[in-house]
Amino acid sequence: MKSMTRDHTFTRPSFRRPLPPLHALEIFATAARCGTFSQAAKELFVTQSAISRQIQQIEAHLGATLFVRHKKGLSLTPEGEALLPVIEDAFGRVARACDNLRNAAQLLTLRMPPTWATRRFLTLLPALSEALPDVDIRVTTYDAWKPSFEDNDVDAAIVLGSGDWRDVEMVKLTPERLTPVATPALAGTLTHPADLVAVKLLHCHPIQAWPRWLDRAGLPPITGHNAATFDTLELALLAAEAGQGVALGDRDLVQDAITAGRLAAPFDLALDQGLAYYLIYPAHRGQLGKIRALRAFLMGALGVEG
Question: Is the pTM of this model over 0.70?
Fold first, then answer.
C-alpha cells in the first residue's frame, strides 16, 4: 500500500562521476580546521604521513591544490576555501539525518481520540512501556474521523471509523457499541427507555447517535427538552459522571467506570453503527520494530485475532 504522506517528485542524483573517498574528505575538513597536519593526525589517531597522503589523493583527483604549506602550518587556497563549506555542510546534514533516525527509533508517537486515550490507553500504558523498554511513548489526542500522517513525527493512530480508509495498514481493535450511562442514582430512576424523556440527554458532536439509539429502542426522537452537546465523547461521559444527565457511552470504554461505581448502564440495548476503533499507520512504517511491537501488544492485550 502507498503511504498517506504527500507524493513528491525527486530528481535522482547521479553518482556515476567518481567522488573522492569520503574518509579523505573528512581528513581534508579536519586538517583545515586544525591548521596543521600534525594536529589533524592526533585528532584522527593516524600518522601525519597518512594525512598528507590523503590530501595528495584529493588534490590529484580534483586537479587542484587545496592547501598552501608554510612553516607555521596550513592555509587554504581559493579552491580549498570553496570546497570546505560544501564538505562541512554535507557531513553535517548526514550526521543530523542519522541522529534523527536514531532518535525516531527510540520514540513512539501516537494519536488517538481523548476518550480512548483516557479510558483505555492509560490502563494499557504500563504494560506497553514494559513491552517497549527502550522506547519513549508520546501521546497526542484528537477526534478525527479521517487518518492523517502529514506530520512526519506521528507513527501510528487509533481512529474510530468503518475501516474504509485507503493508503494505510490497519488492525481492527474494538467495536463501538453505544448504550446510555449515568450515575447509579440517576440510572436507578430509569426502568424503560421511554423514561429518558424526563432527563437531560448529553450529546456528543455529531449528535446523530441519540436519535439512532432511540429508534433502535422503538422510540421517536426526544425533542424540545433540556439537553447539552459536547465536542468529544469524553466530555459527555465526564458530565454524566458528574450527575448532569445521561450520555451514550461505548460499552468497552465505560466498563471500568461501571465497575468502579461512577457510572451505570440502565438498559441492555446497545447501538452498533458498524464502527470500530482501529490501529492505523502508514505502510512504510509497518516494518519498524516499534510498530510491529505496538501492533502485537494491542492485539494481545485486547484479544484481537490475527
Answer: no
